[in-house]
Design brief:
Two copies of one chain form a homodimer. Chain A is mostly helical. In chain A, 47% of the residues lie in helices and 5% in strands. Chain A is elongated, with a radius of gyration of 19 Å. The relative contact order of chain A is 0.15. In chain A, a hairpin with a 5-residue loop joins strand 1 and strand 2. In chain A, helix 1 packs across helix 4 and helix 1 packs across helix 6. In chain A, strands 1-2 form a two-stranded antiparallel ribbon. Chains A and B meet through helix 1, helix 5 and helix 6 of A and helix 1, helix 5 and helix 6 of B. Chain A binds a DNA duplex through helix 3.
Chain lengths: 161, 161
DNA sequence: TAATTACCCGAGTACAGTAGTCAGGAATTA
DNA sequence: TAATTCCTGACTACTGTACTCGGGTAATTA
C-alpha cells in the first residue's frame, strides 16, 4: 500500500482549507507555513488536487485556493487517491495473476484488507476532521497544551527546523 | 504504512507451512519454489520468523521448518510485525509530535486507521487462510481454473518465469 | 568419518519511488 | 507596469526494498 507523506500532506492541506471554507482564497504559502510543508512540494500536490476537481484556484494578488465542494462532500479516500494513484495492497494490483495463472495463497486476504481500508477512508469527510480539530483546539486554549494559533496573524521562528 | 513483499511473502510462507502442519518439516527450497520466492530472500524472512518464535527449524537431510504453534493461534498481524517492524501509518510513529509540540491536523485520523488495520489483521488466523485456500482449491479441481497441485509430488516448468 | 543436505548469518548491490529543489512562465490586481 | 500568486516541467538526493553472494554450522546418512 502507498500511504506516504504525499497523501498525508494532501489531507492536511485540505483540512486547512476546509477550516477556512467560505472565506477568501488561501495562499499556498500560508498553508505551507502553517503545516510545515515545503511550498514547492505542496505546489505539486495542490496541482493534482486541482486536476481532480477537488479544489479551485485563482491567481494574482489576493488569489489562492479554496474547496470546490462542501467539506461534507469530500472524503479522505477521495483526497488520497487524487495524489496517490492507489490504495490497493495486493501484489498484483487486483489482477489476480499473482501466482501463475491464478491468485496466490494470500490474494483474498489482501483484497479484503484493501476493501476494509477503502470503506474506512470513504467514511471520513473533511467536515468531520474539522469538527474533531476544532474540538481539540478548544481543549488546547483551555490550557491543556501549548499551541500555535491557527487563525489570525502568526509568524515566528521560521528558522526552527 | 509498510506493507511490502516482505510482509506478503512472510504470510504466504506461513500459510504454506500451515497447509502441511503435522507432517514432516518443509524445506526452504520447496516453499520458495511453490510460491515463486527467491530462496536467499526467503531465508531472511524465515530467520526473522524463527527469532520471533513463530516457527521452528531442524537441520540436516530431511530437515526444514514447521509452525511453532497451532495455525489457530497465529494471526496475520503477528506474522507481519515479525518481519516488518510496524504497521503504524502516522507520520510521527504514534509519538504525537508531528506538529511543533502537538499532533498535526490529521494525527487522529491516521491513528484511527492504524487501529482499524491492526484489529482486522489480528482477527485473521492462519487456520482461516488455510480453510479459505482449501475451498478455492476444491473449486479449482472441479474444473473452474487450471492450477498446479499443492499437495503431493510436483515439479515442472522451472524455467517459466 | 566423510559426504550431503539443509539451515544460519552478515555484507554488499541495483533499482525505484519518495521527497524535495529549481527555473521560468502565465494570469490577475493595483 | 510592477507585484503577487498560481502553473509547469525537469532535475536531484536519498532511503528502503528486494534482492545476491560467500562463507559458515548443525544434523543425518552411508
Amino acid at each position: 500500500m502507498k500511504l506516504t507523506t504525499r497523501g498525508r500532506y494532501a489531507v492536511t492541506a485540505m483540512v486547512d482549507l476546509a477550516l477556512r471554507a467560505g472565506n477568501a482564497p488561501v495562499a499556498l504559502a500560508d498553508i505551507a507555513r502553517r503545516n510545515h510543508i515545503s511550498p514547492a512540494y505542496l505546489e505539486q500536490l495542490l496541482a493534482a488536487l486541482r486536476r481532480q476537481g477537488l479544489i479551485e484556484s485563482s491567481r494574482g494578488p489576493g488569489g489562492g485556493y479554496r474547496l470546490a465542494r462542501a467539506p461534507q462532500q469530500i472524503t479522505v479516500a477521495c483526497v488520497i487517491s487524487a495524489v496517490n494513484e492507489t490504495l490497493d495492497v495486493t501484489r498484483c494490483g487486483g489482477a489476480r495473476d499473482c501466482h501463475d495463472e491464478g491468485p496466490c495463497l494470500t490474494h483474498g486476504l489482501w483484497e479484503d484488507l484493501t476493501e476494509h481500508i477503502r470503506v474506512f477512508l470513504e467514511g471520513v469527510t473533511l467536515a468531520e476532521l474539522c469538527a474533531r480539530n476544532r474540538r481539540a483546539m478548544t481543549d488546547i486554549s483551555a490550557g491543556v497544551l501549548p499551541l500555535r494559533r491557527v487563525h489570525g496573524p502568526r509568524q515566528s521562528s521560521l528558522a526552527a527546523k
